[in-house]
Amino acid sequence: LRSTVLGCGSYLPENFLTNDQLATMVDTSDDWIVQRTGIRKRHIASEGEFTSHLAVKAARRALDSAGLEPKDIDMIVLATATPDNTFPATAVTVQNELGMHHGFAFDVHAVCSGFVFATATADNFLKAGQARRALVIGAETFSRILDWEDRTTCVLFGDGAGAIVLEAREAAGTVADRGVLTTHLRSDGSHKSKLFVDGGPSSTKTVGHLRMEGKEVFKHAVGMITDVIEDAYTATGLGSDDLDWFVPHQANKRIIDASAKKLGIAPDKVVTTVDQHGNTSAASIPLALDTAVRDGRIKQGDLVMLEAMGGGFTWGSVLLRW
Ligand code: ACO
């Protein structure tokens, strides 16, 4: 069995903040932000708009593009670091909002690598025959965990959601078949202090803010990303020249460009949307995917490499044929 992509969708909240607007809130400038990160604006969920609301909108669009209804899905995996509630899982709230009372839904928590971890998880359930069609969602409201007085972090992140639908299909098992070809996941908790939230339900403060040593994250990012991509090449015998599209986690244009360069991926194969929505953590890959599918770049049969690195640290890759 192979997990084949049937459709995708995404959603960004209506409200957004430009760099110039941010410059009225903290000591920063459009120039600084664009040069260091490539980000031009970020969308911010309105009061009362939660991660599940963004997720449901992206999920409905993904189902529409697949020509399916919630009754056709039997598994929801939702990647988020900003759940509506400590529990239940946001995936279960989404399941209910979609009117689904069958199958199963759960959250996966790997911060910015969340979508890669969720896709790998769903892929394994589908290949094992434990589900037939999965909704894989990445959804975040990072605006709720930012310290809006810390210019070193608040300029980088935004809110959003994206989703894909996967179906288990019989396949010959070659790299020419559509679907997820290989996934590679890694983590190393010794890097916790470089990127974390200084609060949580079992710590001294129940709600915290994102803290980051940006330079340290940058230093590790490119090496970790290229390692897991090379793992995918080793597993499949494919290489950068075979890729049609590179859809990286959208954290920072400089990290994306440096990774593509190190791997020898041509710039015109790189999908970059970070300028439009900043770092939306687990939502960023499906947001970028959906953009490139809807504007006609990614077509059925294309070879697509997804990768992410984030808090933990966690990092991983997904190589798939669309
Ligand atoms: N506006 C203006 N100046 C700023 C801002 C800002 N928003 N933020 C920091 N500065 C200042 C600093 O205070 C510093 O000033 P100083 O020289 O007087 O001390 C100067 O700019 C340079 O700061 P650095 O931190 O050295 O800047 P750097 O070039 O490293 O860029 C950045 C910072 C953009 C955060 C970079 O380190 C980076 O991209 N890191 C990776 C972060 C990231 O992408 N994290 C997410 C990935 S993991 C995940 O997705 C969860």
From TrEMBL:
**BP-aspect Gene Ontology terms:** fatty acid biosynthetic process
Q: Which GO terms describe its cellular component?
A: cytoplasm
* Cited CDD domains: KAS_III
InterPro entries in alphabetical order? ACP_syn_III_C, ACP_syn_III_N, FabH, Thiolase-like
Membrane spanning stretches: none
Q: Which GO terms describe its molecular function?
A: 3-oxoacyl-[acyl-carrier-protein] synthase activity; beta-ketoacyl-acyl-carrier-protein synthase III activity
Keyword list (alphabetical) reads: Acyltransferase, Transferase
EC numbers: 2.3.1.180
Question: Enzyme group, top EC level?
Answer: transferase
Name of the featured protein: Beta-ketoacyl-ACP synthase III
The species this protein belongs to is Pannonibacter tanglangensis
